[in-house]
Amino acid sequence: QALSEMIQFYLEEVMPKAEDHGPNIKEHVNSLGEKLKTLRLRLRRCHRFLPC
Prior knowledge:
The chain is an all-alpha fold. It has helices at residues 2-19, 23-49. Helix 1 (2-19) runs antiparallel to helix 2.
């Protein structure tokens, strides 16, 4: 649960602010955002099958 909340915080608070630091960093921020979304999805799938 804590990891999922941390990912949500980064996606909602940190990433949008980081994107404003210029076009060069935006591509990297978007890439990291996609990786975090994938991780969050995998965590949700895992929690369905394994008690945590």
